[in-house]
Amino acid sequence: MPPDVEQPADPRPTIVFLHGTRLSGTYWAPQLVALGEQFHCLAPNLQGHGHSSTGPFTLDGAAREVAELIEREAHGRRAIVVGLSLGGFVAMALAAADPERVAGLAIAGATAEPVGWRALAFQALAAILSAVPEPILDQVNRRYFGWRYPAMVDPIVAGGFWFGGGAVAVRALVGEHFKPRLAAYPGPSLLINGEYDLFFRPTERSFAAVAAAPRRALIRRAGHLSNLDQPDQFSAAIRRFAEAIAG
């Protein structure tokens, strides 16, 4: 094509994947491979996580950075946002604050409010991430992911484990309410939980009840890390959701 002829825009919808506590964007390697040809996929590092993180985590700051990424890099300056665990909470904060940037919202393992007795679990996790020496946590995580997900462990380990940033992030969630944020988002949403995720799955229905246009997906034979436990099921659910929005 001659240099003075404008290149056609990439028509693929953008999907932004937001990772969970202590991990990084490389966590989404299975979905980036499965969906990367059909969709324009971005997997940033949240604040306090990853080699290119930009400082301590705050909920509003993390949501703002994702909005800026969408503004800067997403096709049409809008994206389908997929978040798991910590990433799911950030995704709901983003969708409430900047709904015009979110073409669709998919949250996995994040359908429980970190308040009341559930806040104790978040505080306990933060305490572990803070109190246990990082070399021990790093070794435990490397061994766990290597044992549980041997075919997917290399990119996860390459992205590193960010325990200090993870502790700050988990503490930042405690006391926050996310159902009002989900209710404020007027677009389509997909609520995903693993069949065996007994912490987040039981209250999924209450989140669906407040969403404007909810869909629900159960990932069979999966726990909290449902995209790794059953990557094909998870990717297929995201594909169907994204295709419905694009169509």
Report on this structure.
The chain is an alpha/beta fold and 247 residues long. It has eleven helices and six strands. It has helices at 29-35, 59-73, 86-97, 117-131, 134-148, 153-159, 163-173, 179-184, 204-210, 226-229, 231-246; strands at 14-18, 40-42, 79-84, 102-108, 188-194, 213-219. It has a six-stranded parallel sheet with strand order 2-1-3-4-5-6, with helices on both faces. It is globular. The model has no long low-confidence stretch (mean pLDDT 95).
Give a short overview:
The chain is an alpha/beta fold and 247 residues long. It has eleven helices and six strands. α1 (29-35) crosses α11 (231-246) and α2 crosses α3.
Topology:
Layout lengths: L13 E5 L10 H7 L4 E3 L16 H15 L5 E6 L1 H12 L4 E7 L8 H15 L2 H15 L4 H7 L3 H11 L5 H6 L3 E7 L9 H7 L2 E7 L6 H4 L1 H16 L1
Parallel strand pairs: 1-2, 1-3, 3-4, 4-5, 5-6
Keywords:
247 residues, alpha/beta, six-stranded parallel β-sheet, 47% helix
